[in-house]
Amino acid sequence: MNQNPEQRARDNIDKQLISCGWIIQSKNQINLYAGTGVAVREYQTDAGIADYILFIEQKPVGVIEAKKEEEGHRITTVEEQSLEYAVSKLKYLKNDPLPFVYESTGTITHFTDYRDPKPRAKEVFTFYRPETLRDMLKNAKPLRGRLLDIKVLPEEGLRDCQIRAIKKLEKSFKDNRPRALIQMATGSGKTFTAITFIYRLLRYANAKRILFLVDTKNLGEQAEQEFLSYLPNDDNRKFTELYNVQRLKSSYIATDSQVCISTIQRMYSILKGEELEEDAEECNPGEIKWEKREPLPVIYNEKVPIEFFDFIIIDECHRSIYNLWKQVLEYFDGFLIGLTATPDKRTFGFFNQNIVSEYTHEEAVIDGVNVGHNVYVIETKITKRGAAIWKGEFVDKREKLTRRKRWEQLDEDVTYSAKKLDDEVVNPNQIRAIIRTFKEKLPEIFPHRTEVPKTLIFAKTDSHADDIINIVREEFNEGNAFCKKITYNSDEDPKSVLSQFRNDYNPRIAVTVDMIATGTDVKPLECLIFMRDVKSRNYFEQMKGRGTRTISLDDLKKVTPSAQYTKDHFVIIDAIGVTKSLKTDSRPLERKPGVPLKDLLRAVAVGARDEDLYTSLANRLIRLEKQMTDKEKEQFREKSQGKSLKQVTKALLDAYDPDIIDVAARKKFGIFTENVPEPSQLEEAQQELIKDAARAFTGELNTYIENVRKAHEQIIDIINPDVVEFAGWDSKAKEKATEIVEDFKAYIEKHKDEIIALQIFYGQPYRRRELTYSMIKDLLENLKLEKPALAPFSVWQAYEQLDNVNCGNPKNELVALVSLVRRVIGIDDALAPYDKTVDKNFQDWVFKKQAGALKFTPEQMEWLRMIKDHIAMSFHLDKDDLDYSPFDAKGGLGKMWQLFGDKTDEIIDELNEGLVA
């Protein structure tokens, strides 16, 4: 190794260039035919001696200005010097200016492509490969230049929020902003938006390759399906007919894939040169509480160089850009685009405050893209305060792992808090009280439904989920198909159950722990029951997002036949106080003590390699080994490729034991006792020990270890009954209802002189006979266009909450709208479906007519009822209407003249006026 700082920097630069495929030569031993890319040291130029000149296929293309590491903070000050070399003539050559310019200390490297419009230096992980620079030169324009030429966005089939996001993102690209954040509410089409701009980048900017990063396998599968079904609005071929899309399932990346979908943990393992179990992709890494103190840097991988992807889209970026995973993103030299519905302060910071789209849930509800929610609270005594079981009572004790029970007498008092519920103590009465109250209150929460709406229950653990399922089936007197579990650990294929929940009549109720807490689309879902608390504000918002999706009435009726109108809201049943508990932002970056065992296991499974992690896990396993039975130890051996728990634990400790590492290096490299292994040999031997120790921790073994740890018994408390202390709409729901009603009143008042239907309502009573179907239709369309959040059924439900009325649902939106307008302007003292008002007015009219000598015949009454029904649904009857259904089947206008003679016009006028009074 050279000793002075400049030479040490050049040694580091040499190593990096060699790793990136360059051949390094001195100026006295030049052979430009030695390979595709040759870096010649200390080459003479008209401006002086350049530290390195880069040649591609014998032609000079770039320059590297090397500086000592201490000069890192001044690296931008040497850009003028390196540019001077780039534009000068090389000795012996009549070259054009060199387009590719690097400044590097061997630790920090900056790169500028001087073919770019407004060339700007950027920090890169290392150097580009020679083949990359060769391919870049083949393009008439660099990527940034091509981005300036991208064609105008066709807006057909896109929502306003999607159009805004894409246009602003493409402007961000043109402005050479390296990072951009798209914040779009759940359900507003983030993935569709992303695929649209990915398509445009591939087609119109000739992007080479794009990475779509997710943090769970489930989200990757969903993204793949969206790519498969995406049809561009300027081409009649599907996306996958135009471009190759590969969802990574191993370390293999096809070179002809234009789009790669990968979990961030798999990409990390690929860069590390390691395989990853698919089980490690099932959990969201943002929930793993293990924090590395000093994260090991990602190592350069020649198969996936830094320039491999031009653009990287990070889905759910609020939870996948920190700690271990941040290194993956900063390894690649590409534009970073974050997608999230729930950013936090760190998210904004990571993306340099470059927020190209801010489309909130509230805006999405106003636009009708999402639906809002109401909160219904169920509070029970034990949920709030826990209970006590006294010494001497006989109770069931149940093993968590096997669920085997035994009858035992308590030898001391057991007092449990609400936090211990469903962990140390299970009280079936508490679960039953919540489920029974939900069932009994369904007519209040979802009026006029003959079946349970699609409902998702969030449980604490898989064991808790099983308890809930059994009680749900019993309380609703239904079979297995009615209520099912959807978690990664369920015996039935979770994807199959999720598909049934989404598309079939059954299951009506699904119970999950975490699998569909985030990112999973179930449009018919109308009810969320929280039986577990959530402390993370972002995670809670994601969980709520499962209910926000809109769905057409026809599609909703396919799975919920008794639905009478389209989904305009969903309901949160808060049975645990989740809507009132204190929420925090995402976890702070510093390491937390007391990391759960499952998080240590998951951290190892997804590729974390840290001495503190290995030591912590080993210590936990040593303690666990003392508690395990012989049978459990044997089962452990079966799931760990024949290794005992002691052997697995020893491997964890050996990976960081200097003596063991020394022995391994000597054995690997054949080093005799009198010699000392080189640091690089020790490092290589240690990496093998680390990998070997981690290899045992597959998803199957990790699950087994977690279950064994939890195998201690739970007390089943059937002694303490539970009582419901409150069941009703949350106070905020009433505030929200009041706001909706007041907004509706204000809208009607504001437009009373502009919209014909409202002019008629506000006019004299006799004018209401002029009201027509088309006038009401115009009013509805205006309302939906200007105030989607004031859809008639939403306002109707708000009135029901405030007035405590339950007068039945209107037959359709137009009937609901007329009823609401009548209530607002004071025609009706209480909310009532307009068709029922017409029924009452008809009875009064007939009674008044027949009070004297006039008596209608049965055939006349049949006709009068048909007219009444027509006015109830169409608001007005013209004589011409009598020539259409249902009147034409009974003889039409001619038959009415035959029945009523010269009184026909008078009767039509009276009914038009009297029934709408």
Please describe what this structure looks like:
- With 917 residues, the protein is α/β, with parallel strands linked by helices.
- Helices cover 41% and strands 15% of the residues.
- The strands form five sheets. The chain has a seven-stranded mixed sheet with strand order 1-2-3-4-5-6-7, with helices on both faces. Strands 10-11-9-12-13-8-14 form a seven-stranded parallel sheet. The chain has a seven-stranded mixed sheet with strand order 22-23-21-24-25-15-27, with helices on both faces.
- Helix 22 (645-654) packs antiparallel against helix 24.
- It is flat, with a radius of gyration of 35 Å.
- The chain starts with a helix and ends with a helix.
Key words describing this protein structure:
917 residues, alpha/beta, 7-stranded parallel β-sheet, 34 helices, flat
Outline the secondary-structure elements.
Layout: H1 5-19, E1 23-25, E2 37-45, E3 48-56, E4 59-66, H2 79-87, E5 100-104, E6 109-113, E7 122-124, H3 130-138, H4 143-148, H5 160-174, E8 179-184, H6 190-204, E9 210-214, H7 217-229, H8 239-242, E10 245-247, E11 259-263, H9 264-271, E12 311-315, H10 323-331, E13 335-340, H11 345-350, E14 355-359, H12 361-366, E15 372-380, H13 381-385, E16 387-389, E17 394-399, E18 405-409, E19 414-416, E20 425-426, H14 428-445, E21 455-458, H15 462-475, E22 483-485, H16 494-503, E23 509-512, E24 527-530, H17 537-544, H18 553-559, E25 569-574, H19 597-605, H20 611-627, H21 630-639, H22 645-654, H23 658-669, H24 679-694, H25 699-709, E26 713-716, E27 724-729, H26 731-750, H27 756-762, H28 773-786, H29 792-803, H30 813-824, H31 834-849, H32 858-874, H33 892-900, H34 904-914
Parallel strand pairs: 1-2, 4-5, 8-13, 8-14, 9-11, 9-12, 10-11, 12-13, 15-25, 20-26, 21-23, 21-24, 22-23, 24-25
Antiparallel strand pairs: 2-3, 3-4, 5-6, 6-7, 15-27, 16-19, 17-18, 17-26
